[in-house]
Amino acid sequence: MGDSAENRIHPRSRRPYVALENEKAQFAEWLATPENIRRPKTMKELSEIMNVSRQTLRVWSTDYRVIGDQRKLVAQRIVEAWPDLIEAATKTAMDPSNPKQIQALKLLADWHEKQLEVDVASTEDMSDAEIKALAIRMYDSVDEDTQVA
To answer: Are residue 35 and residue 55 in the same domain, yes or no?
Structure first.
């Protein structure tokens, strides 16, 4: 007769496995939050709140499940915020007095090019996982293009 997951204790952390998975999900959520709006701000502060070491958080940050959860959350947020992002970029691109006008124009041109690729592929035939993967690819390419050198 095996113990249920709720009753099993992790041998090193001495925490129930269920609590450990919840903590990892909380950490993935924190990682997926943009740094400028994270609360708590630092990994040190988070480790103190979660009552785990910073080393534990560093190990978790390499866990494929935490990374997967983080990427899913980021993709979900991008999909939800995409209309607002495009609207903000369009306003910036239309404002000649804005110093980021050229950057916004480039972003919109890249997005338009990728949008054409999506239109050809037809998202109606795509699974949710494929749409999320596409959102991640688009996010990654936009992020690479907009980083300050």
So the answer is: yes
